[in-house]
# Entry
Amino acid sequence: MSAVDPSGVVAIVPAAGSGLRLGAGVPKAFVELGGVPMVVRTVDGLLESGVVGRVVVVVPVSEVTAAASLFPGRPVTVVPGGADRTASVAAGLRAVTSDVDVVLVHDAARPLTPPDVVRRVVAAVRSGLPAVIPVLPVTDTVKQVDADGVVTATVDRSALRAVQTPQGFRRSDLVRAYAGVSGALTDDAGLVEALGDSVHTVAGDPVAFKVTTAWDLRIAELILAGASVPEHPPISAEER
Ligand code: CTP
Ligand code: MG
# Structure
């Protein structure tokens, strides 16, 4: 494989959430997984990919000083975040210089994301696509319900995908998308969709799951400890 120049690629890592659902008593990104804060694992996974030149980590205002000491020797900038994820990503985006071509947005809460997923997203954006997201097929049957929990429809899951991060964008498109933002979103690509631009998909990876609850954290610990988790079968082009 030819050498990849990571210099034009910056990853924004929103890590400014409080982690209410995890309930660890400290902001989720700073909770340790196998003795290392989750956000450090996430940043190292991005840098290990070899296709990311700089990481902007967005943390709660109270954590800026402490967080800055977590990344010795790494090309990392720490900035304070906002009240919701959208405001935090916007703050990160303001710290990205205009000479950068590609911006990734990657949840701090996905500490086990394989570097291959990062490489796939960057390669797809580098190939000329404006917005790229890693996805997984939905394997459970999906139902729509009303306010009482009564089923109103069975959704055709073959056309559905669960979306992960890192999501990758041409910097100019993401800046344009965030310029018009109103309200909080859980997904950056949604903003680009709203502009009418196409969003493309690449294969995600189950190991890139988001740590949301204490159960997820325990699963992450077990995977890290080398519990016997079988390798996930490759995801076919049809399932993307
Ligand atoms: N995030 C952020 N700024 C916020 C809220 C969330 O940077 N104001 C980040 C989180 O740190 C996390 C990612 O967005 O890396 C995904 O959010 P989520 O999993 O919901 O994390 P939290 O908001 O911390 O968790 P919870 O919703 O349970 O409080
Ligand atoms: Mg949240």
